[in-house]
């Protein structure tokens, strides 16, 4: 049975914090693979502007290219409407019955977890792995396994703001993603 870590998010854009977290969780839990799962329309971010799913997929593809054990699972991009984790995990378990899934979330989502759609049922289908994040508590009511990773206080929001303001993003995200962003004129570049 393959042990798969699912790492969901908007990845708008993907950055070194995402890659560091995925690598640390994969190593700490001896997972076979990490599947990055970009979402189409996250229910908690419906009012925000995002780059298109196609751009986010391509940036993520660039970010993980050449990294063994890192893959993209586009299941949420292929569905219409809001992406609910419960529905996605049910589909993944049907599609890959020989895999066991863990769902990786940051501390910001641990605090938000009680408001997730069908969270009690979801907890019976998947193991949650929490990762600390500056400014958030990793304490929660669901007994989530916590993996300590080196803290790298970067966010996609910070990167988008810096790009829009013409500020540097060196050492925050891979150069090939910066080139893609500027080549496509994303985030006000």
Relevant CATH superfamily: HUPs
Q: Tell me about the largest β-sheet.
A: 6 strands, parallel
Strand arrangement in the largest pleated sheet: 3-2-1-4-5-6
**Distance between the first and last residues' Cα:** 45 Å
User: Can you write the helix and strand succession as a string?
Assistant: EHEHEHEHHEEHH
Q: Estimate the mean pLDDT confidence.
A: 90
Q: Report the portion of residues in β strands.
A: 15-25%
Your description of this structure?
It is a single chain. This protein has helices at residues 16-28, 53-64, 85-95, 107-112, 119-123, 156-164, 175-184, and strands spanning 2-9, 33-38, 70-72, 99-106, 127-131, 145-147. The protein is α/β, with parallel strands linked by helices and 189 residues long. The protein has a single domain, classed as Rossmann fold (3-Layer(aba) Sandwich), CATH 3.40.50.620. It has a 6-stranded parallel β-sheet. Strand 1 (2-9), helix 1 and strand 2 form a beta-alpha-beta unit. The longest helix has 13 residues, at 16-28.
In short:
The protein is of the alpha/beta class and 189 residues long.
Layout of SSEs?
Blueprint: E1 2-9, H1 16-28, E2 33-38, H2 53-64, E3 70-72, H3 85-95, E4 99-106, H4 107-112, H5 119-123, E5 127-131, E6 145-147, H6 156-164, H7 175-184
Parallel strand pairs: 1-2, 1-4, 2-3, 4-5, 5-6
């Amino acid at each position: 049975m393959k042990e798969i870590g699912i790492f969901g998010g908007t990845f708008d854009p993907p950055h070194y914090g995402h890659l560091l977290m995925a690598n640390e969780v994969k190593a700490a839990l001896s997972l076979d693979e990490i599947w990055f799962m970009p979402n189409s329309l996250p229910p908690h971010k419906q009012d925000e502007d995002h780059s298109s799913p196609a751009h986010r997929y391509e940036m993520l593809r660039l970010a993980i290219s050449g990294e063994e054990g890192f893959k993209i699972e586009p299941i949420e991009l292929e569905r219409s409407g809001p992406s609910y984790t419960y529905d996605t995990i049910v589909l993944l378990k049907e599609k890959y019955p020989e895999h066991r899934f863990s769902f990786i979330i940051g501390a910001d989502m641990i605090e938000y977890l009680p408001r997730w759609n069908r969270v009690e049922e979801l907890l019976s289908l998947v193991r949650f792995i929490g990762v600390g994040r500056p400014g958030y508590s990793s304490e929660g009511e669901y007994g989530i396994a916590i993996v300590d990773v080196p803290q790298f206080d970067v966010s996609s929001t910070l990167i988008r703001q810096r790009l829009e303001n013409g500020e540097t993003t060196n050492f925050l995200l891979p150069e090939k993603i910066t080139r893609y962003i500027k080549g496509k004129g994303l985030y006000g570049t």
